[in-house]
Amino acid sequence: MSARTDTVLPTPDKKADADILLRVEGLKTYFFTRNAVLKAVDGVSFTVRKGEAVGLVGESGSGKSMTCLSIMRLVPTPGARIVGGEVWFEDADLLAMSEQDLRGYRGRRMAMIMQDPQTSLNPVYTVGDQVSEPIRLHLKERGERVMAKVMEALRAVRIPQPEVRVTQYPHQFSGGMRQRVVAAMGLTTHPELLIADEPTTSLDVTIQAQFVSLIKDLQRESGTSVIWVTHDLGIVAQCCDRVNVMYAGRVVESAEVRKIFKAPQHPYTKALLDSVPVKGKKKKRLYQIDGQPPALDRLPSGCPFWPRCPHAMDICKEQYPPKTSAGVDDFVHCWLAEK
Questions:
Q1: Residues 253 and 146 in one domain
Q2: Going along the chain, which residue ranges are E strands?
Q3: Among 163, 88, 81, which residue's Cα sits nearest to residue 127?
Q4: 220, exposed or middle or buried, with CB in 10 Å at 0-12, 13-18, 19+?
Q5: Exposure of 281 by Cβ count < 10 A (0-12 exposed, 13-18 middle, 19+ buried)?
Q6: Does residue 195 share a domain with residue 143?
Q7: Is residue 237, in this structure, part of any structural domain at all?
Q8: Mind listing the pLDDT tens digit for each residue in 167-214?
Q9: Same-domain status, 184 and 198
């Protein structure tokens, strides 16, 4: 039986936390409309250690991308606002920082690869100009050294003929090529934290494998920490050390990647894994999770997953389950874990 955690958290051990690069505590980001308040991120907490790869997984609309945008303080305004929580980058509180001070972190010490290259790239500037911007702004490079680093970045993401491509515009690139350009922009400054938001969506299988290998090489060589936001559990298994499973704006389970795949604790995590085809196992029909993710303006009371959960109990419909310890740093929010 798992042990329920106390509501009063112990004082953190500074020596034990010395290797934590990013700490997110109780992060809340809401959308304010005329008719409702949409809780896109509702009390998310997790950590990323130095050199660690952490996955954020879940269905579309679960709050993964909005969590990452909140960390970078790039939430869409005026509709969305960060209304609570803390985001610590080592000993600096990013949410309490001025916009000017934040520029020293955003793009330099932490970078984000957006999932939609079509909107991430400016159509009126050449690719060379856009890839060189972080180099000029954060690394303070000038002249020929800038172009040398641009070429290096484009070659790193397998852009053919970079000396020709730097003079071209985004519309002259395919979707996969644009995604690689966006990745190059994020990698040029060698950030300590890289947030990869669905970075392989527009890539074909071969380039996807090369891109994943590139990020893993970066981690190994420079000790960069990575947050992988993805629907691809294969990438999670291949790249991540720890996984945070999100549903309806909350982290419902967090555990080491091997533990998630071998012994998932939350019914939603189990359902996600059952939805993945297994090599060598033939099925007449692939498993699918019944129902749809809840609309943020019509969240059910209690646990938001209970309308789709095969193990739902009466208490699930009435109260949100408390945080239950499932290991040293592992936890799950599920009433089944309380039994």
A1: no
A2: 3-4, 20-32, 37-49, 53-57, 80-89, 92-93, 110-113, 193-197, 225-229, 242-247, 250-256, 323-325, 331-333
A3: 163
A4: exposed
A5: exposed
A6: no
A7: yes
A8: 999 999 987 788 889 888 888 888 999 999 988 876 777 778 877 888
A9: no
Tell whether 195 and 281 lie within a shared domain: yes
In angstroms, what CA-CA distances link 58 with 125, 192, 268, 286, 320? 35, 25, 9, 18, 19
Residue 259 domain-assigned (yes or no): yes
Count of domains observed in the chain:
2
pTM, full prediction: 0.87
- Asked if 221 and 201 sit in the same domain, the reply is yes
Pick the last residue of a domain from 170, 190, 210.
190
pLDDT in tens, 287-298: 888 889 999 988
Interatomic CA distance for residues 141 and 134, integer angstroms: 10
Residue 9 in domain: no
**Range(s) of the domain holding residue 158:** 120-190
80-89 vs 20-32, strand pairing mode: antiparallel
Domain boundary among 252, 270, 286: 286
* Locus of tokens 């520029």: 103
72 found inside a domain: yes
Question: Which phi and psi angles does 225 have, rounded to 5°?
Answer: -90, 145
Provide the H-helix boundaries in 223-277: 233-239, 257-262, 267-274
The per-residue b/e assignment along 150-165, b for 16 or more CB within 10 angstroms, e otherwise, is bbebbebbbbeebeeb
The alpha-carbon radius of gyration of the chain (Å, integer) is 21
Are residues 200 and 227 both part of a single domain? yes
Q: What is the pLDDT of residues 115-154, one digit of tens each?
A: 777 778 999 999 999 999 999 988 888 988 999 999 998 9
